[in-house]
């Protein structure tokens, strides 16, 4: 049988908004991300082969992984690590006899530095068939293709901004209204969904307009479900700065903001050679900023599902997933 995964959902802040740290204008923020995936089985389960995508890559643009702690409650669990496309960090966990309650606890500390900018890729990524070809979850309808082409222009960033707003207006966020198998076309036809659906529709539209795009899975500050947004690949010369980043060449910006220089971190300079992955959040209709912690990127949700797997047994596995993101 398959162990259930985690559907995309918008992260709910822990407590009133006024209780959250004010990081507006910050140049550098360190986060602790704590996640628990708890499975309970109502029957015997054996030969579990589980896949966790809950640990970010060592670097993703201006995001740097500082520490990782993965704990499995089954003492005999065997964990191996695998690297996939786009820097994907996959923990493969095998357990011969699964306990009735099984916990996967993951704690990571990441630092985000505004001046380090967006993730960069070779210029060849701008014509990547992998990120321009529709998947089962992101296949556009003829009407979606026509709408995407009507919004397309010579500036891919401006096109992505228009698509982001278009998706935000047409898909209302309604928790539980869709599931992990809902396609972009189905979500758009229904006019409601969760952040996963909004991301899939934006990806489908951007690809239809000739802009390579990928699905981002991660978190925002607070406590709740994981979040999803979109990265579009554009020429580095056209990439806007990350919100909070000082203007290029402003040498005293970090010191003037009271921040500590992180050391030898190369600043992202718009106008550089190659491609940049600029992040848009259609759920909130905005560019992503330092409030976003990226865990993984891929073609769609299936590439980066946080938790999934298979086991032998007639019993049913039930998942409860929790996550908390704190500024440290």
Structural description of this entry:
The protein is an alpha+beta fold and 328 residues long. The chain is built from seven helices and 19 strands. The strands form four sheets. The protein has a six-stranded antiparallel sheet, with no helix packed on it. Helix 2 (142-151) packs across helix 5, helix 3 packs across helix 5 (195-208) and helix 4 (184-190) packs across helix 5 (195-208). It has helices at 129-132, 142-151, 156-170, 184-190, 195-208, 253-256, 301-304, and strands spanning 2-3, 28-41, 46-52, 59-60, 63-72, 78-83, 89-97, 101-113, 120-121, 172-173, 192-193, 213-220, 222-223, 227-235, 275-281, 286-287, 292-298, 307-312, 317-327.
Tags for this model:
328 residues, alpha+beta, 6-stranded antiparallel sheet, 7 helices, 18% helix, 37% strand, globular
- General form: globular
Which spans have pLDDT < 50 for at least 5 consecutive residues?
Answer: 6-19, 246-263
Radius of gyration: 20 Å
Tell me how many strands there are.
19
Strand arrangement within the widest β-sheet reads: 4-5-8-2-19-13
Cα distance, first to last residue?
A: 40 Å
Written as H for each helix and E for each strand, in order along the chain, the element string is EEEEEEEEEHHHEHEHEEEHEEEHEE
Mean pLDDT score: 87
**What composes the largest sheet?**
6 strands, antiparallel
**Percent of residues in beta strands:** 35-45%
Based on secondary structure, the structural category is alpha+beta
Count every helix, treating DSSP H or I runs of 4 or more residues as helices: 7
Binned, the helix content reads 10-25%
């Amino acid at each position: 049988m398959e162990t259930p995964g985690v559907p995309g959902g918008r992260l709910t802040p822990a407590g009133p908004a006024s209780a959250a740290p004010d990081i507006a204008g910050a140049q550098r923020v360190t986060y602790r991300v704590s996640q628990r995936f708890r499975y309970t089985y109502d029957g015997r389960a054996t030969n579990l082969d589980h896949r966790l995508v809950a640990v970010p890559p060592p670097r993703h643009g201006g995001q740097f992984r500082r520490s990782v702690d993965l704990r499995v409650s089954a003492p005999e669990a065997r964990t191996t690590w695998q690297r996939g496309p786009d820097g994907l960090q996959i923990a493969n966990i095998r357990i011969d006899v699964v306990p009735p309650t099984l916990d996967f606890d993951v704690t990571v500390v990441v630092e985000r530095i505004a001046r380090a900018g967006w993730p960069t890729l070779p210029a060849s990524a701008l014509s990547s068939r992998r990120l321009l070809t529709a998947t089962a979850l992101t296949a556009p309808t003829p009407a979606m293709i026509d709408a995407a082409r009507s919004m397309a222009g010579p500036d891919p960033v401006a096109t992505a901004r228009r698509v982001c707003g278009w998706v935000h207006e047409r898909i209302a966020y309604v928790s539980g209204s869709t599931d992990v198998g809902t396609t972009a076309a189905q979500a758009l036809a229904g006019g409601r969904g969760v952040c996963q659906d909004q991301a899939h529709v934006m990806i489908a539209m951007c690809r239809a307009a000739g802009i390579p795009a990928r699905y981002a899975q991660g978190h925002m500050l607070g406590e709740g479900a994981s979040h999803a947004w979109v990265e579009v690949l554009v020429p580095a010369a056209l990439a806007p700065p990350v919100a909070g980043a000082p203007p290029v060449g402003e040498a005293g910006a970090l010191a003037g903001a009271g921040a500590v220089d992180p050391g030898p971190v190369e600043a992202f300079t718009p106008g550089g050679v190659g491609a940049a992955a600029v992040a848009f959040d259609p759920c909130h209709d905005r560019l992503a900023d330092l409030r976003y912690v990226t865990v993984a990127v891929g073609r769609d949700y299936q590439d980066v599902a946080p938790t999934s797997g298979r086991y032998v047994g007639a019993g049913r596995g039930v998942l409860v997933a929790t996550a908390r993101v704190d500024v440290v």
